[in-house]
C-alpha cells in the first residue's frame, strides 16, 4: 500500500500570503496524484489532477507540481474562501486508492 | 448539471446491515467508474470501494472485504453499497463519487453530499 504523508499538518497564514502544501508518497506514483479541498460540512472538491492540471472552474491561483514521490500544492495569494482542509490522493498502485491525512489551512 | 444524491444514513447496531444508494443525474452514468469514499468523524478521507462501468470489476479496501458489496444499476442510474456485519469503526460519512480518467490517471471529479452511518448500540 502506498502511504501519502502530508505536511504540515496545520498551516497558519493570512489572506494574501502564499501557501505551500506538501504530499510525499512512500513509493513513486509517477504523476497519478490529485488534490482535493474540503470545507466544514461539505464534500471534497477536486482541485488538481495528474499532479499539475487544474480541474474545471478552479482559479489560477491554485497550482500543483511534482512527480515521483514529492508533490506540492501552491496557492499563490490566499483568499478568505481558501481556508479549508486539503487532501492528496494517489491512483498509481491500487487497490487501495489512498489519501494523505490532510493539511488544515487556517487563518492566522 | 452533474448530481449525486446519497440515500439517508442511519443508526445501526453493531453486527447489523444497511444498504446505501446513490442516485446519479446530469451525465451518462454507465460510462463512468464509481466510488464510495468515507470519512469518520473528525478524520480524513478513506477510499472504500469502486466499480467499473459494467460492474465487471469491483475493488475494496481490506477493512471492508467480505462485509461490504458495491453494485450498480445503470438502467436506474444508481450506485449501491451493501454493508453487512457493521462495526463501530464503520461509523462515518459515506460519499458517492464519480471517477473521471484523463489519458494518464483517474480521480474523483464529482461527489455527493454524503450520508452519515452510525454504528452503535
What does the model show?
The complex is a heterodimer of chains A (108) and B (121). Chain A is 0% helix and 49% strand. Chain A is mostly beta strands. In chain A, strands 2, 4, 5, 6, 9, 10 and 11 form a seven-stranded mixed sheet that branches. Chain A has a four-stranded antiparallel sheet with strand order 1-3-8-7, with no helix packed on it. The radius of gyration of chain A is 13 Å and the shape is globular. The model of chain A has no long low-confidence stretch (mean pLDDT 97). Chain B is globular and about 45 Å long. The relative contact order of chain B is 0.31. Chains A and B meet through β4, β5 and β10 of A and β5 and β10 of B.
What can be said about this structure in brief?
Chain A is mainly β.
Report low-confidence residues of chain A grouped into runs of 5 or more.
Answer: none
Could you tell me the mean pLDDT of chain A? 97
Q: How much of the polypeptide of chain B forms β-strand, as a percent range?
A: over 45%
Q: What structural category characterises the helix and strand content of chain A?
A: mainly beta
Q: Mean pLDDT of chain B, rounded to whole units?
A: 97
Radius of gyration of chain A: 13 Å
Main pleated-sheet profile of chain B: 7 strands, mixed
Name the structural class of chain B: mainly beta
| Net shape of chain B | globular
Amino acid at each position: 500500500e502506498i502511504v501519502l504523508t502530508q505536511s504540515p499538518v496545520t498551516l497558519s497564514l493570512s489572506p494574501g500570503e502564499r501557501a505551500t502544501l506538501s504530499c510525499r508518497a512512500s513509493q513513486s506514483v509517477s504523476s497519478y496524484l490529485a488534490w482535493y479541498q474540503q470545507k466544514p460540512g461539505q464534500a471534497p472538491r477536486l482541485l488538481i489532477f495528474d499532479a499539475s492540471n487544474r480541474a474545471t472552474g478552479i482559479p489560477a491561483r491554485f497550482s500543483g507540481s511534482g512527480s515521483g514521490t514529492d508533490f506540492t500544492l501552491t496557492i499563490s495569494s490566499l483568499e478568505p474562501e481558501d481556508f479549508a482542509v486539503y487532501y492528496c490522493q494517489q491512483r498509481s498502485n491500487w487497490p487501495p486508492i489512498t489519501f494523505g491525512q490532510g493539511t488544515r489551512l487556517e487563518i492566522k | 448539471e452533474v448530481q449525486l444524491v446519497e440515500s439517508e444514513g442511519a443508526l445501526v447496531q453493531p453486527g447489523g446491515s444497511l444498504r446505501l444508494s446513490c442516485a446519479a443525474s446530469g451525465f451518462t452514468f454507465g460510462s463512468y467508474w464509481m466510488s464510495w469514499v468515507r470519512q469518520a468523524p473528525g478524520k480524513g478521507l478513506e477510499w472504500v470501494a469502486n466499480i467499473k462501468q459494467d460492474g465487471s470489476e469491483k475493488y475494496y479496501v481490506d477493512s471492508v472485504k467480505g462485509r461490504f458489496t458495491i453494485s450498480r444499476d445503470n438502467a436506474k442510474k444508481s450506485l449501491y453499497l451493501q454493508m453487512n456485519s457493521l462495526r463501530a469503526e464503520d461509523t462515518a460519512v459515506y460519499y458517492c463519487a464519480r471517477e473521471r480518467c484523463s489519458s494518464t490517471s483517474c480521480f474523483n471529479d464529482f461527489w455527493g453530499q454524503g450520508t452519515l452511518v452510525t454504528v452503535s448500540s
